[in-house]
Amino acid sequence: MKAILCLALCAMGAAAAAPFAYVPNEKSGTISVIDTASDTVVRQIAAGKRPRGIASDERGRQIFVTDAASSVLLAIDSSSGVTEALALGRSPEGVSVSPDGKLVAVAVEENNSVTLFDAVTHAKLADIPVKGRNPEHAVFSPDSRYLYVSAEEAEQVDVIDVGRHKQTGSVAVGLRPRGIGFSPDARRAYVACELVNTVYVIDTASLRTLAAIPAGKNANGIAVHPDGRSVYVSNGMDGTVMQIDTARNAVSATIPVGKRPWNMALTPDGGKLYVANGRSNNVSVIDTASAKKVADIPVGELPWGVVIR
Predict the structure, then answer these.
(1) pLDDT computed for residue 1 by the predictor
(2) List of residues 6+ apart from 233 with CB closer than 8 A
(3) First to last CA, the chain
């Protein structure tokens, strides 16, 4: 009996530990909260007028989302919904939290800069100019030392030294780089370039491009599997997600999803990939083991991306 009770409690604990996916809905002005155990929306959080980029701390206690209409970063307590608005330049987009949990970085399009905040105190630390115009994503390297920045009007990824608060390098890629992801060992960065339908592989030590992998039309979002063996790229015009085998730098599967798939996120165990479909107003769920879509979850209007904690 004790063994049965223990198994039951363990099962309940495992179910309770399933992470949540947070999806900003740009037109609805909300964040849809998805329980990844049941793949259902369990809550809606008010998030300004035009939420776009989203990130969170490691445990999901704070959600950071850019409100492009108000030019602010919203720091939201995920339990209470209490929100603090942090002033930014015009048209902020992508946001990320450093892996060490200390910093928040925001790409600010019309400023051509990246703004750094203290993740705990919310103090603004720096506005860092970048060469690429209209930056969209600013993504921390796994060791939190660097930010890789993509911009709509660029043919390079800009590299910021976080400690020095300045751009110290760049890597040539294709036109209009978008999503960026790092391998777990930090040796490679993967960049989707929208106007050339290609994913570029960057050697982070030498800041050189190692490979250019053909993708679908309007390659955009990037997600890297925790085991490093697969990288996923969303193709906005094709309505697909491609799985890339990192050993071969070649596409190994193409998975149909919704209309205009955009930014994506994987569950911590890598078992499921959640894809924001901007024109379908839903999130597609992909089982990574089978490389097949297993669900479409209705959310708000114009979902922009996903963060999972």
Answers:
(1) 37
(2) 179, 190, 192, 199, 215, 216, 219, 220, 221, 222, 241, 242, 244
(3) 34
